[in-house]
Write a structure and sequence with these properties.
By secondary structure, the chain is mainly alpha-helical. Helices cover 48% and strands 11% of the residues. Strand 1 and strand 2 form a beta hairpin. The structure holds zinc ion (2 copies).
Length: 205
């Protein structure tokens, strides 16, 4: 039996057919390309280390999470690049310069039904992303107004207005409505728990 080999177009080495990557788009034969798996792996690693590679992986992660939460997802890689470019690699909340550890931050979090859309994403540092968690933007601002200052908050409101083709007062209305809804849910849950535990003894209890 003849052993089938061919040479890789990238490294030039003669290898067994089965060492070449399969591409389903090739309709004929065994669907194998002329690039060996070792070279394909190398190329993948190189791509992942690039800026675009890193950003696109963050986008992929966001898309998987959006699916789990069942929220709207229409974000594209071009849009993410536009957003990253717009904020010039600085955390939108604290202003810290970001190197490679950019977080795709959702102003309204997925758990609060925020969409994975251009109008809902900014970039932040990891600590700010963790601190904000699922807080409404207004609450996050009040709790962290030393780093996420009034100036930064208002600038973000204007950015959100521009990107969502509306005016700042509409954005403020939405943010306020979210804050109210969020607070209401929190208080209701807490009250419910309080009465279920039967510890309501009045002020003098
Ligand atoms: Zn090769
Ligand atoms: Zn930050």
């Amino acid at each position: 039996m003849k052993i089938e080999t061919k040479s890789c177009r990238v490294c030039g080495k003669e290898k067994l057919n089965e060492e070449f990557e399969v591409d389903k788009r090739i309709k004929s034969g065994d669907q194998r390309t002329n690039r060996c798996y070792a070279c394909k792996y190398e190329a993948t690693l190189k791509y992942r280390a690039t800026r675009t590679g890193k950003i696109s992986r963050k986008l992929e992660n966001a898309k998987q999470r959006a699916k789990r939460f069942g929220v709207v997802d229409d974000l594209t890689i071009t849009e993410v690049k536009e957003v990253v470019g717009y904020f010039e690699d600085a955390c939108v909340y604290c202003g810290e310069e970001l190197e490679d550890d950019i977080v795709l931050e959702h102003v309204r979090s997925f758990s609060e039904d925020g969409p994975n859309s251009k109008g809902n994403i900014v970039i932040s540092c990891d600590p700010c992303n963790r601190k904000k968690n699922n807080l409404p933007l207004i609450d996050f601002h009040y709790r962290n107004n030393e780093s996420f200052t009034k100036e930064r908050f208002f600038a973000l409101v204007d950015y959100l207005a521009e990107i969502n083709c509306t005016d700042r007062w509409n954005v403020v209305d939405d943010l306020t409505a979210h804050k109210t809804d969020f607070t209401l849910r929190k208080v209701r849950t807490a009250l419910d728990k309080y009465y279920k535990e039967g510890v309501a003894n009045g002020l003098r209890g």
